[in-house]
Amino acid sequence: MSTATRLPTAVLLLASLAIAGCGGSDRGKAAALNPPPAAPAPSDELATAQDLGPRLAEFAREWKVPGIAAALVSRGRIVAIGAAGTRRLGWDAPVGIQDRFHIGSSTKALTATVAAALVDRGLIRFDTTLAEAFPGVQFGDRRAAAVTLAQLLCMAGGFAAEQGKEQHEVFALLFQVQNLNDIDEMAAKDLPTMRRQVAERWLNRPLAHQPGATMAYANIGFLIAGSMCERAAGRSWEELVRELVYQPLGMTSGGFGPAASMGAVDAAWGHLAGDDGKLVAVPPGPSGDLPAVLGPAGLVHCSVVDFARWAAWNAGDGRRPPLLVRADTLKRMRDGRFPGVGFDDYAFGWGRTTFAFAPRPLLFHYGSNGLNQSAIWIDREQDRALVVLCNATTSALHQQGLPRLAGELWELR
What we know:
alpha+beta, Beta-lactamase, eight-stranded mixed β-sheet, three-stranded antiparallel β-sheet, globular
């Protein structure tokens, strides 16, 4: 089976997770967002941080990962950071801390933050319903009309968990919508238009659960939430992430889709196990990531430095600049169950999970597009966070290797 054929299957088995959207055929007048000014990082931050490179090199050899980068953050500062291995297996292309990696489903918290920023600006509400966002849509289940933005961002939209047949149906729809029938569609069919079309077609189906009652991990819910935000703001999801997250945080490496440029080894390439179990480097391009239309669910890439900046902002609960989201909005998103959601172990792009190395539950997320792996752990009480990025993934790595590495690095001071 070819790499291109196997990629969606690999992603579905992991149960996690582009080209930036442009044009505007499905968007109204763009709202003035007035993003907050960027907060400069301490000038000596990286120079004084502990070097994790030697330990990461050992880990990469032990777990057969081509390249890896990690950073530990405490009270807004990177206190330990490093990178090891190669951008592309078989090449002399050492990974550095400024190299871009794909973060997969760790993207979801960025999408939720964009939604919250739009709520703060009065452009959308957490209780905006699908019926309000998509007027005229034919719902296959009358309950879906009342599903809210918050429920989608908490995996409580009533969709089935994407496994087996359900996941294959999702990807079939994504590829069908993203394909162009002829050249005349190029100008009219931008990413916001494609996302709206996916949303409208998926909402023709019956729900699997009562909305708000059951947590079911469904990437399609975040795609639909992203489409709601696009329609509310008059901008593509990619533009919103750049304006409301990347630029204020100074995430200059942030982008979408494969981390490396096409035809270049200027960042981490993803890797996939072949039929013989050996890793094969997958070049940036059509086989290098999931369909771009799925962006809000998992297509961000960035360096470990910028991933750490994002983690630090979250660990500080927004107490440090920039003001991405109002303090009261962030508190609503993180403290207990959100109205209309009957559980609190997943909310707004974060799982709440207990780990052996931490005395309290942490905000956490894994991300993978089947070729890469990310992980992020956040302790809000201690204002502490850890991020890890790899350019390959296996079930053993994400079930055993990364938790062990996290336990070790978490003890550093």
